[in-house]
């Protein structure tokens, strides 16, 4: 029974982690206004002499959850568990982009090609390609940033845990998330828009700061969810199995 619970928990956490990572990659093509979505006045930040507001890719809705799941996996299955799912997620994300590229290149059926809407006729092939087709540099940047961010999260989590022991879950989980998201926020922009595009470094750094401030705030706000998930998992596993998994993870 204990082995069944261990396996079920491993698969549930891993599946949710991978699913969120893949979904975040694809919805990230949409840019939304945080302030207008929340119904609050625009927040203007002056960075390097220019003004910026909180316009984010929709992927940021899920990335904090990905890092929380990473911390939960780290807590119960250690760095090896997080590395395994991070590598699997990276391969599946790359595979998904390849299949999307193939689907874009297929010849559309005539009856599907256009669609009448209240705003006019939409070319469905162009719309499909615009939504799902992301540039090679953006794909490369997001994949590299995801993998590096996950590895940084793993080592930061264990480094903090070695110093604090079993106490201060919030510190090792939230602390590792804030460190890894700092790396993630800038790596993706540097690869996708500085190396692969024509953005000046000043703009890359400014947008990275805005993105990180948003991720920082969300990570702090989601800390109670981390404790809630921990309590639910502990109650389901039972004290003995929960303590065993945490001990094994700590000693990896």
Question: What secondary-structure arrangement, pairings included, does this model have?
Answer:
Elements: H1 2-27, E1 31-33, H2 34-38, E2 45-47, E3 50-52, E4 55-57, H3 63-105, H4 110-113, E5 114-117, E6 120-123, H5 124-132, H6 136-164, H7 169-195, H8 201-221, H9 223-237, H10 239-250
Antiparallel strand pairs: 1-4, 2-3, 5-6
What's the short version?
This protein has 252 residues and is mainly α. It contains ten helices and six strands, in the order H-E-H-E-E-E-H-H-E-E-H-H-H-H-H-H. The chain has one domain (2-250): Orthogonal Bundle (Arp2/3 complex 21 kDa subunit ARPC3).
| Widest β-sheet, arrangement of strands | 1-4
Low-confidence stretches: none
State the CATH topology: Arp2/3 complex 21 kDa subunit ARPC3
Rg value: 20 Å
How many domains? 1
CATH architecture: Orthogonal Bundle
| Beta-strand percentage range | 5-15%
Question: Biggest β-sheet: count, sense, barrel?
Answer: 2 strands, antiparallel
Structural class: mainly alpha
Helix content: over 70%
Count of strand segments: 6
CATH class: Mainly Alpha
Q: Work out the helix count.
A: 10
**Order of helical and strand elements:** HEHEEEHHEEHHHHHH
Question: Cα distance, first to last residue?
Answer: 24 Å
Shape: globular
Give the overall pLDDT as a whole number: 87
What does it look like?
This protein has 252 residues and is mainly α. It has a single domain, classed as Orthogonal Bundle (Arp2/3 complex 21 kDa subunit ARPC3), CATH 1.10.1760. 76% of the residues lie in helices and 8% in strands. It contains 10 helices and 6 strands; from the N terminus they run αβαβββααββαααααα. It has helices at residues 2-27, 34-38, 63-105, 110-113, 124-132, 136-164, 169-195, 201-221, 223-237, 239-250, and strands spanning 31-33, 45-47, 50-52, 55-57, 114-117, 120-123. The strands form 3 sheets. The chain has a two-stranded antiparallel ribbon. α3 runs parallel beside α7 (169-195). It is globular.
